[in-house]
Amino acid sequence: MSALNPGTQAPEFSLPSTPDQRVSLAEFRGRPVVLAFYPADWSPVCGDQMALYNEVLSELAKLNAQLLGISVDGVWCHAAFAGDRRLHFPLLADFEPKGAVARKYGVYREADGFTERALFVLDAAGVIRWSFVSPVGVNPGADGIFDALEALTEKERGL
Amino acid sequence: MSLRPPVSEQDHAAGSADAPLTLVEYGDYQCPHCAAADPIVRAVQKAFAADLRFVFRNFPLTEMHPAAEPAAEFAEGAAVQGKFWETHDAIFAWSRRHGPPSLGPEAFAAIAVNLKLDVQQLEADVQRHRYLERIKNDFNGGIRSGVNGTPSFFINGARFDGAPTVEDLSEALAEVLKR
After folding, report:
1. B151: closest CA among B16, B67, B30?
2. What is the percent of chain A where pLDDT is above 70?
3. Mean pLDDT of B58-69
């Protein structure tokens, strides 16, 4: 399985973000979206990665971009994790059927039962413009995300 | 992964600009790993002496470490009073001795008295967030350079991905020095 390449229309999805809310990719059409697939809530590297992304939300907003974290953890686990780490962006639960969205993006690890540590930057039209799969144990940082967003034209950023 | 922006006179640097090695750390004053890394950096500085310039840039993870940004503002205020490195070391030493959660106004006040800093000036600077923009610029530069956690080190502009130990840092520095 390999991650969807730039130039591909990002597959639609609708996933729960809390016990009583769902988030659809289509809601963000008209602005760039950063999808951050990560293996698991609470594992040390993911924690650092999500904590880092939590600190760049205002910089992402300047580029009109919305960040969505996605893992196979359930909504209650996400709620506890987001509360503990004071995260201010949605964590989506690719929980049932497990990893279905990750599979669509080519970033599900069958043998492990969790997703790759994968990043996708989508433009305002929902086209994948950049993707990156990091080794599971390595926090990819945020520089690639910002490089990809800044390479978009204002129109592609929905501005 | 390379350093953006490059080291300049705006940076807090210990050692000569002519040194063949420049080690840059992106650090958070309330991060336990950064506190642990501080004596390691000192040991490396001692070992490489005149061959090494050390630069510290702020990378406060404000949501996880509520005292990180105030600590950075405090250290920046002390820098203007000519005591950046003393203050930098004192904050990390405090954190190692009393634990990172104990950092806050009382710790800063005690450090200020110890280092004979102008406390009134410092408090005013921190309250007015006089150095916050500089700290945010450090942070954003770190993001663009590929900082993925704290501490993150760069050797002559390239990210160091080894463990922050005296052995690994020294080995990597010696390798670059040989080139």
Report:
1. B30
2. 98
3. 95
Q: Could you say which DSSP state residue B5 is in?
A: S
Residues of A in contact with B139 (CB under 8 A): 55
Domains of chain B: 12-178 (3.40.30.10)
Task: Pick the residue of B148, B152, B153, B159 with the most A CBs within 10 A to test the interface with A by mutation.
Answer: B148
Tell me the angle at which helices A143-150 and B132-145 cross, rounded to the nearest 10 degrees. Answer: 90
Residue B6 in contact with partner chain A when CB distance is under 8 A: no
Q: What is the DSSP string of B102-116?
A: G-SHHHHHHHHHHTT
Residues in a beta bridge with A69 = A36, A91
Average pLDDT, chain B: 96
Whose CA is closest to A101, among A81, A65, A71?
A: A71
- Domain ranges, ordered by start, for chain A: 30-150
Is A47's pLDDT higher than 80? Answer: no
Per-residue pLDDT averaged across B110-117, rounded?
97
CATH 3.40.30.10 fits A30-150, yes or no: yes
Distance CA B115, CA B113 (A): 6
Which ipTM was obtained for this model?
Answer: 0.86
A87 shares contact with chain B (CB less than 8 Å): yes
Q: A77 an active-site residue?
A: no
Contact assignment for A88 to B63 by CB distance below 8 Å: yes
> Residues 97-136, chain A: which have Cβ within 8 Å of B?
none
